[in-house]
Amino acid sequence: MSLKLYYDLMSQPSRAVYILLKKSNINFEPKYVDLRKGVHYTDEYSNNINRFKKVPVIDHNGFILTESVAIIRYLGRENLLPEALFPRADKVLNTRLDEFLEWQHLGLRAPLAMYFRVVMFSPDSEKIPSYQKRMETALDEFSTLWLGRGNQYILGDTATVADLLAACEVEQPRMTGYDCTANYPVIRDWMDRVRTHFNPHYAEASSIVEKIAAKRVPMKKPTAKL
Length: 226
Fold this sequence. Notes:
Elements: E1 3-7, H1 12-23, E2 29-32, H2 43-48, E3 57-60, E4 63-66, H3 68-77, H4 91-121, H5 128-147, H6 161-171, H7 185-198, H8 201-205, H9 207-213
Domain GST N-terminal: 1-83
Keywords: Cytoplasm
Pfam families: GST_C, GST_N
């Protein structure tokens, strides 16, 4: 099997796919795409690898696939992922996984990613409070509607790819100085479990987050929430 991963660990979904491949003991050839240097905008990359000019991308025996969720579903359906991480046999659990994967695009990823982008690239924008409000609304919903049901993880008491994708999104605002776990004990405890489950690969992939977050001044936190 020949598998190449085009990635940059600054990218949340890149981290998720990278960790997943490592955790699943899948041999792959890492292909670093430096987003800060605009490598994803070059003709070579956009014409030959990803016409959407994004990461991650996999090349599996010549089959090129973009979009992290599509990549994860493909790896799962090809039986390259452990059943525990990508449930297939249990049709109900598999459908619940699909339910979360569909929700997280707009329910979690979009508001957290947009907050990160505006703070990092437009730090003086007067729109930051509105983006922060949207992000915190998403964290409220994630905490109560997905994690606040007495389970250890999103789909139950076993960690799956749903937890990995979500955790990588929750980490991203830390690079702006905002810790999403500080005011949400349920998310904080869940994050601790996810990190432990996917370590040492989680820590390896998140080292860039830790490095940048260490240089940021923590933002003032509101009253603790559930």
